[in-house]
Amino acid sequence: MAFPRRTLLACIGALLIAGCAGSDSAGQGPLVLAAASLQEVLETSADAWAQEGHPRPILSFASSAALARQVEAGAGGDLFISADQRWMDRIEADGFLAAGSRRTLAGNRLVLIAPATTTRTVDIEPGLDLAALLGGGRLAMADPESVPAGRYGHEALETLGQWGAVRDSLAIGENVRVALQLVSRAEAPLGVVYRTDAMADPGVRILDLFPVGSHRPITYPVARLASSTHPDAQGFAAFLLSPRGQAIFARFGFLPG
Q: What does DSSP say about strands 110-115 and 190-194: parallel, antiparallel, or unpaired?
């Protein structure tokens, strides 16, 4: 029997994550399933939490879509941090979240990037001809069908009247970090990513911010999974939401939740 590729990947991911489940019994920290764009800030946050005497959280990064599907497939985990509200809405509706644990953790901005060696300047405004700027190259972005960064990018390009001109010239990544790498390696002349991703990669340069009103607000909800039994799960979530945790997020360019 053949399985759809996404279903197969979700099942494989669930098995891999399940291998980390029950980590508290071995003195390990809670398992955090988090959007790929949170890698640097959560690594730093996990270190800070561990410095307070707690077992360091185990961090698993992928697209929000992939992680949500893994949760639905039965993957173990303690906290889920999505890059948009839609995927959190979906697993909450299916009963996978601990009641009352959901909070908005942080916000972000969407940017247009180019390789760091690019000298051009671009203003994202009405009349922008993105297809001309690509010059026959491809626009790197996360999957606009399922990945939050891709969805936000699709919305912004639709609002600006550019989607129809570039939709057949996309270099689609399975998550936003893959799109970032395509531009960083100069395999794509332009890309649409989060501002914090661009800040984390010296191989790219931010050309401009997409207007705030061109897409839904970018927010990261965090929640404890209903199956979680780790005693530190809610404590680590509270740390991320605390003034100290929020200061770490601000240092990495995230906006308040």
A: antiparallel
pTM of the predicted structure, to 2 decimals: 0.87
**Domains of the chain, start order:** 5-107+219-256 (3.40.190.10), 110-209 (3.40.190.10)
Q: Interhelix angle for 5-18 vs 64-72, to 10°?
A: 70
Q: Does residue 173 contact residue 143 with C-beta atoms inside 8 Å?
A: yes
The owner of tokens 């893959």 is 178
Query: Token pair of 165, please?
Result: 């001109």
Cα dist from 192 to 9, 19, 41, 121, 174, whole Å = 25, 34, 20, 15, 13
Q: pLDDT (tens digit, 9 = 90+) per residue, 209-238?
A: 999 999 999 999 999 999 999 999 999 999
Distance CA 181, CA 173 (A): 9
* Angle (CA) 17 177 93, round 5°: 50
The mean per-residue pLDDT over the stretch 196-203 comes to 97
The one-letter code for the residue type at 187 is E
Question: pLDDT digit string (tens) for 94-127?
Answer: 999 999 999 999 999 999 999 999 999 999 998 8
Evaluate whether 231 touches 57 at the Cβ level (below 8 Å).
no
